[in-house]
Design goal:
162 residues; mainly alpha; flat
């Protein structure tokens, strides 16, 4: 077997490194998606704190730039825009995290209900319900009630409820 060239060795090394990075990124993404609820809750708290802080800094730059070192009349407008721009980023993060929490907070409950067979999609209900019939066994108490001479009308669900 002939020795491999340096180019070939570099290509193999780059290929193996790419595969290792793909597996690593897949593991990291799986870790993040499994803990997305906790991460989203942290983002809500972090972004709310950021909104308060950048609002405070922006109003300080706007109203009293004297108390912040390094801000003079030449860069006051730019720093004020940057502070309020950062506040806009925190507002976006807060609102998207809050929307995620509100929309998906009962996701696990719904998954458990669906896995038990309830709330099946309508196509599955139509296909599966045609040939699926449930016959409830007759209870002895219902037969005794029919055999008696009393004129008591029995509901068809009374055997199940008794």
């Amino acid at each position: 077997m002939a020795p491999r060239s340096l180019e070939h060795k570099l290509q193999l090394t780059m290929f193996r490194t790419g595969i290792n990075l793909a597996f690593l990124s897949r593991g990291i993404l799986g870790w993040f998606t499994s803990r997305l609820d906790c991460i989203t809750s942290f983002c809500v708290v972090y972004s709310f704190t950021g909104i308060l802080f950048t609002a405070f800094v922006g109003t300080m730059i706007k109203n009293q730039p004297l108390y912040i070192k390094g801000i003079d009349s030449s860069n006051q407008e730019l720093t004020k825009e940057n502070a309020f721009g950062a506040m806009g980023m925190f507002i976006f993060l807060f609102s998207s995290s809050a929307i995620y929490i509100c929309c998906y907070k009962h996701r696990n409950d719904e998954h458990q209900i669906r896995s038990q067979g309830y709330m099946r999609p309508s196509a599955m209900q139509r296909l599966g319900s045609r040939d699926y019939h449930v016959e409830l066994p007759h209870s002895p108490s219902l037969e005794l009630q029919h055999d008696s001479d009393d004129e008591v009308e029995v509901d068809e669900m009374s055997s199940i409820l008794s």
